[in-house]
């Protein structure tokens, strides 16, 4: 199953500038693994050895995956994933 | 509390703090505190709209205070020409009803979040880097908080505007959103945990409600952060 993933600006250097890409998988974790195959380096920007990095938030629809099942969160047809990284600047 | 009675502290008088201060002054906020230790630089001028070329080298807080008083003669401006630091943060935020945080480094963001939660002062956080911006409002209940969203000071992988740059109009949009949420809090029309993101590449703004985390170190059921510790905010400024 293909899922649309919205890519934030800081990570678009890894997706050739694309603000949306598609990746396949039944769970958020599987989608990230497919993203890594298509856009090498993106996994490290999202995950560390404990899971989702502490200053990155991954949403399925409007829900933060930390409040669902984390990387094991199951995806349904039509779900979209978006990524909100911490930023400091003004 | 009326807007005229409200005391609002702005931490970081940069690309976000400048337009946010202007919006609040024109909206009738009675007292505005300005906290920053920087001087105006030429590279600030494309986004820090209270300043102009003749201000380069001057204290941001002093110049901003002067301009705000010209914008609205009724506003009382309190200049705090210093960085928000662990040893004084609590005393400073306690003097205000609301804090707007638009700092350019994570240490100050987390310090402001912690001090406001511990002091019981609502806070609206805002950031802008390159083409993206985020705003998070933490209402009078103090949760969900900034640490519910981003748990701790990042150690890598999160560039600030000094390194990554920021497109001039983006902090203006972010600041307007921050000021709007701030006025909602002051007016009592606020829903907790509003996270707004703006993507300047696609001109897309999205709003989500951030849930409170039960295991949050700051506002969770068993909080670990009970006072401000100097060593918790040691990451270098951007």
Written overview of the protein:
The complex is a heterodimer of chains A (90) and B (238). Chain A has helices at residues 28-38, 42-46, and strands at residues 2-6, 20-24, 47-48, 51-52, 56-60, 63-64, 80-85. Chain A has 90 residues and is α+β, with helices and mostly antiparallel strands. Chain A has a single domain, classed as Beta-grasp domain (Ubiquitin-like (UB roll)), CATH 3.10.20.30. Chain A has a five-stranded mixed β-sheet with strand order 2-1-7-5-6, covered by helices on one side. The N and C termini of chain A lie far apart (39 Å). With 238 residues, chain B is α/β, with parallel strands linked by helices. Chain B has helices spanning 17-26, 60-71, 89-94, 106-119, 146-149, 161-164, 169-187, and strands spanning 7-11, 31-35, 76-80, 98-101, 123-129, 132-138, 194-199, 204-209. Chain B is globular, with a radius of gyration of 16 Å. The N and C termini of chain B lie far apart (36 Å).
Protein topology:
The complex is a heterodimer of chains A (90) and B (238).
Chain A: E1 2-6, E2 20-24, H1 28-38, H2 42-46, E3 47-48, E4 51-52, E5 56-60, E6 63-64, E7 80-85
Chain B: E1 7-11, H1 17-26, E2 31-35, H2 60-71, E3 76-80, H3 89-94, E4 98-101, H4 106-119, E5 123-129, E6 132-138, H5 146-149, H6 161-164, H7 169-187, E7 194-199, E8 204-209
Parallel strand pairs in B: 1-2, 1-4, 2-3, 4-5
Antiparallel strand pairs in B: 5-6, 6-7, 7-8
Helix pairs in contact in B: 1-7
């Amino acid at each position: 199953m293909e899922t649309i993933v919205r890519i934030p600006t800081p990570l678009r250097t890894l997706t050739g500038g694309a603000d949306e890409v598609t990746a396949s998988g039944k769970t958020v974790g599987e989608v990230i693994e497919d993203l890594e195959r298509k856009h090498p380096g993106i996994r490290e920007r999202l995950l560390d050895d404990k899971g989702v990095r502490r200053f990155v938030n991954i949403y399925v629809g409007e829900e933060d995956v930390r409040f669902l099942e984390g990387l094991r969160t199951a995806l349904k047809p039509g779900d979209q994933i978006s990524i909100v990284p911490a930023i400091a600047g003004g | 509390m009326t807007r005229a009675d409200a005391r609002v502290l702005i931490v970081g008088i940069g690309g976000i703090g400048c337009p946010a201060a202007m919006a609040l002054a024109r909206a009738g906020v009675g007292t505005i505190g300005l906290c920053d230790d920087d001087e105006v630089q030429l590279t600030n001028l494309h986004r820090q709209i209270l300043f102009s070329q003749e201000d380069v080298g001057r204290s941001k807080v002093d110049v901003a205070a002067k301009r705000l008083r010209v914008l609205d003669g009724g506003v009382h401006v309190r200049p705090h020409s210093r960085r928000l630091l662990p040893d004084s943060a609590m005393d400073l935020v306690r003097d205000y009803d609301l804090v707007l945080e638009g700092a350019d480094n994570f240490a100050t963001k987390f310090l402001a979040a912690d001090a406001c939660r511990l002091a019981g002062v609502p806070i609206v956080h805002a950031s802008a880097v390159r083409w993206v911006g985020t705003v998070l409002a933490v209402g009078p209940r103090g949760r969900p908080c900034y640490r519910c969203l981003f748990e701790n000071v990042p150690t890598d992988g999160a560039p600030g505007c000094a390194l990554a740059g920021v497109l001039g109009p983006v902090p203006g949009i972010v600041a307007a959103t921050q000021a709007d949420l701030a006025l909602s809090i002051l007016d009592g029309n606020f829903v907790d945990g509003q996270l707004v993101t703006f993507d300047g590449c696609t001109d897309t703004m999205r709003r989500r409600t951030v849930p409170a985390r039960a295991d949050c170190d700051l506002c969770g059921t068993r909080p670990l952060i009970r006072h401000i510790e100097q060593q918790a905010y040691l990451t270098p400024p951007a």
